[in-house]
Amino acid sequence: MARLYVTILVSVLMATTNCLADGWTTIRNGSVWLDTNGDTVQAHAPGFLHYGGRWYMIGEDRSDSWHPDVNMYSSDDLVHWRFETKIIRNGVTVPELGTRRFIERAKLMHNPRTGKFVVWCHWEGPRYAASEAACFSADSICGPYRLEWSGRPLGVKSRDCNVFVDNDGEAYFVSTTEENTNIGLFRLADDYLSAESHVCLMPGLRREAPVIVRHDNLYYMLSSACTGWAPNQCMLSVSKRLDRGWSQLEKIGDDKAFRTQAAAVIEIKGTKKTTYLYIGDRWMDPDLPSSKIIIFPIEFKDGKCIFEYRDEFRINFATGEVE
Ligand code: GAL
Question: Is 290:31 a contact under the CB 8 Å cutoff?
Answer without folding.
Answer: no
